[in-house]
């Protein structure tokens, strides 16, 4: 049988304090991934939604959140 690995309190707190987010090369802020949804008129008067994932930081925040 394999030996069960137990983590101590110090290991758990070190994992919680680690910064796992990517950072922008220009402004240095963490990059957040958001889903940007745009409504479009389709043929026949129906509405379609165009979705895409966008990386947002302080550099492009005003362009995304219009």
Describe, in plain words, how this protein is organized in 3D.
The protein is of the alpha+beta class. It has a domain at 23-64. The chain is built from two helices and two strands; from the N terminus they run αββα. The chain has helices at 9-17, 61-64; strands at residues 32-41, 47-56. Strands 1-2 form a two-stranded antiparallel ribbon. The N and C termini lie far apart (58 Å). The model has no long low-confidence stretch (mean pLDDT 88).
Q: How would the blueprint of this fold be written?
A:
Layout: H1 9-17, E1 32-41, E2 47-56, H2 61-64
Question: What would you say about this model in short?
Answer:
With 66 residues, this protein is α+β, with helices and mostly antiparallel strands.
Portion in strands: 25-35%
Largest sheet: 2 strands, antiparallel
Order of helices and strands: HEEH
User: Helix/strand-derived class?
Assistant: alpha+beta
Detail the poorly predicted runs.
none
Strand order of the largest sheet: 1-2
What Rg, in angstroms, do the CA atoms define? 21 Å
Number of helices: 2
- The average pLDDT score comes to 88
